[in-house]
């Protein structure tokens, strides 16, 4: 499930640029090599790494603070992008 803020952000970008959702998505992917959703997920995981490194927040709290409402989904996305779980990442620091 996409976050509400992410949907609002996309809508605002399309409206500010006076382009359709489809055109924006295609242009973004051509320019960056990834979809907006993928880009935002990568940015969120990057932020999670910082929080895991410098705080003692529970994994669920880190997930919530970066916009995931389900710790299981956060862990799956974190593992997909880093190769380890958030817990394993923190233990290796």
Describe the 3D structure.
It is a single chain. The protein starts with a helix and ends with a helix. By secondary structure, the protein is an all-alpha fold. The protein is built from six helices and no strands. The model has no long low-confidence stretch (mean pLDDT 89). 12% of the residues are buried. The chain has helices spanning 4-17, 21-32, 36-54, 59-65, 71-82, 86-91. Helix content is 75%, strand content 0%.
Keywords:
single chain; 93 residues; 6 helices; mainly alpha
- Structural class by SSE content: mainly alpha
Shape: elongated
The total strand number stands at: 0
Helix-strand pattern: HHHHHH
Quick take:
With 93 residues, this protein is mainly α. The chain contains six helices and no strands.
SSE inventory with pairings:
Layout: H1 4-17, H2 21-32, H3 36-54, H4 59-65, H5 71-82, H6 86-91
């Amino acid at each position: 499930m996409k976050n509400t803020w992410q949907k609002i952000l996309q809508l605002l970008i399309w409206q500010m640029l006076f382009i359709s959702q489809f055109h924006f998505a295609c242009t973004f992917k051509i320019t960056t090599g990834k979809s907006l959703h993928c880009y935002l997920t990568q940015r969120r995981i990057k932020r999670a790494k910082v929080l895991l490194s410098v705080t003692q927040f529970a994994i669920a709290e880190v997930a919530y603070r970066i916009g995931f409402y389900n710790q299981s989904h956060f862990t799956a996305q974190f593992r997909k992008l880093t190769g380890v779980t958030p817990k394993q990442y923190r233990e290796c620091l």
